[in-house]
Recover the amino acids of this structure.
């Protein structure tokens, strides 16, 4: 079964924006990101700095490539793999019982500890990236299709941002009700 | 019919985007509220001028060199806010102080009292748009009122009586000053303690 191209295009646009926004906060504060990466304790110390430098550029490159029709499928698969890798990193640290480290998912104003919920979030993101990797059936696209893709992506991204905000708020709420 | 469906679809998408923006805005507001709800810690009991006694009278010059009288009877009460450009909590309280100044403009005069580097003061004033406020830079007032910790606030009524004072770390602490002014106790702790004692004695 082949999906309508609208699904693929919307998935690609959402993946691109999410990757690009994740990359910008890492590029802006490389020292902070390398500290967060260090806190995950998955890489030998010598590798932390180069990986922290390279990762955001990889994300940016994937974000760009996912938008080009030629490289969309490959880049989307790579993005899905990257997101799954992040989920694995979180899962390993959860398994080690280190719930108190910062997720490093978003900027400094959205610090949040790692939690199993983040795994579900990443699974959803992997799903979106896989949607973009799916080869759609070919049909002529008009202006209206472009509008639907843009509108659907905008709604999906806003809801993602809102859900992310709720996730980041929830530790504050738990503290408030005394748990 | 097709035309109508397309129009309805476009309209629905636009409304859905607007709704998503509204949800996003709500989440952000909740986040800000979480940030502002600080644990309502204890106001520090300290030495210095006693509450419900006449406030010490002192006169200091504000930034423009005009004299400002502290502790004298007048037609308005005074809220003294002691701050420093180097104290981040003071800065986080400035919006709350400004809103109090605006809300209670007809009964309360808010005076900012600071000390230290004039350049830093200028920067703070332009950052928080305090150009129109009474802003005193100098150690006299702080020494008279024996301010050891910042941010500190003191509330003087229009008769020149010190009604409340304390270390203020949050908007709740600031509000507690007005609450104790209303209740006539030195601090909320005092009031709660008194209340506690009362419960052991028969009432009515």
């Amino acid at each position: 079964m082949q999906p309508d191209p609208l699904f693929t295009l919307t998935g690609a646009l959402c993946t691109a924006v999410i990757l690009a926004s994740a990359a910008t906060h890492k590029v802006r504060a490389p020292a902070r990101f390398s500290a967060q990466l260090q806190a995950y304790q998955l890489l030998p110390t010598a590798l932390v700095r180069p990986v922290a430098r390279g990762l955001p550029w990889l994300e940016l490159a994937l974000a760009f490539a996912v938008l080009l029709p030629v490289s969309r499928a490959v880049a989307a698969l790579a993005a899905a793999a990257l997101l799954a890798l992040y989920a694995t990193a979180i899962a390993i640290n959860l398994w080690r019982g280190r719930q108190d480290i910062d997720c490093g998912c978003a900027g400094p104003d959205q610090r949040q500890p790692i939690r199993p919920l983040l795994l579900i979030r990443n699974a959803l993101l992997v799903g979106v990236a896989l949607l973009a990797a799916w080869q759609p059936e070919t049909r002529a696209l008009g202006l209206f299709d472009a509008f639907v893709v843009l509108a659907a992506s905008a709604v999906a991204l806003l809801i993602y941002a809102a859900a992310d905000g709720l996730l980041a708020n929830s530790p504050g709420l738990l503290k408030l009700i005394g748990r | 019919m097709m035309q109508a469906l397309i129009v309805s679809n476009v309209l629905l998408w636009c409304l859905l985007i607007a709704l998503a923006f509204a949800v996003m805005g709500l989440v952000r507001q909740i986040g800000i509220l979480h940030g502002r709800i600080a644990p309502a810690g204890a106001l520090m009991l300290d030495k210095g001028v006693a509450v419900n006694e006449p406030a010490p009278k002192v006169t200091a010059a504000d930034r423009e060199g005009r004299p400002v009288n502290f502790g004298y009877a007048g037609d308005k009460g005074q809220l003294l806010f002691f701050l420093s450009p180097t104290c981040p909590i003071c800065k986080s309280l400035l919006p709350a102080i400004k809103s109090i100044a605006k809300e209670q403009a007809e009964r309360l005069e808010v005076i900012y009292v600071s000390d230290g580097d004039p350049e830093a003061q200028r920067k703070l004033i332009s950052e928080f748009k305090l150009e129109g406020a009474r802003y005193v830079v100098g150690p006299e007032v702080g020494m008279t009122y024996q301010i050891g910790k910042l941010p500190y606030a003191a509330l003087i009524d229009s008769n020149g009586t010190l009604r409340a004072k304390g270390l203020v770390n949050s908007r709740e602490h600031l509000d507690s000053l007005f609450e104790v002014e209303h209740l006539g106790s030195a601090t909320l702790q005092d009031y709660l303690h008194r209340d506690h004692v009362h419960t052991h004695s028969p009432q009515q």
